[in-house]
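Record minuted for completeness.

…
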Amino acid sequence: MGTYDMTHPVSQSSGKNGKNLNRNMQRRRTPMKNLEPKIEDRKKFDIDLEYGKVREQQVADMLQDKKIEVKSERDVWQKTGNIAIEYECYGKPSGINATESDYWFHNLCIGDETFATLVFDTASLKRIIANLDKKRSVSGGDNNASRMYLLNLQKLFSSDVIKAFKEQADAA
C-alpha cells in the first residue's frame, strides 16, 4: 500500500522555433514521505488502518478459492437507471436463482469499457432482492426466454433498502 505523487512536473526544454518540447513523457512516481500522522494527530488512525486492512483482505479473499458470477450491463443502464438480474430461463431457475457463486460481480459498461463494477455477496443480493418493496420483472434475452428483475440503482442504494439490509444482518 503506497501513495504516489503523480503531479511531479515533467522536464521541458526549448526546441525549434522557441517552442517547448516535452522531452520526458514518462511521469515519475515518487513515494511521499512522512504520511503517517503524529501520535497527537492520530485520533482513530490505528482503528481506520486496521479496518482498511481487513477490507483489503476480504477483497483478496473474493478472488481466491471462491466462486464468482460476472454479469455485464451494456449501455441501457445509463438510460433506464436499472440493472437486470436474471432469475429464470425457459421456465427453469437461472441466474441469481441457480448460481452457486459466493460473489456476484455486476459490470456497468459504456460501450466496450467497464465504467464500474458492483460486487455483492450472493446471499446478500438474494436477500436484498427478496425484500425489495418494488421490483419489476421483465422478459428478455434470446427468444425472450429469460425472466429478469429490473433493479433501480438509486433504489438499490437508498436508505430504506440499506436499513432493511442492516436489520436482516442484525437478526441473523
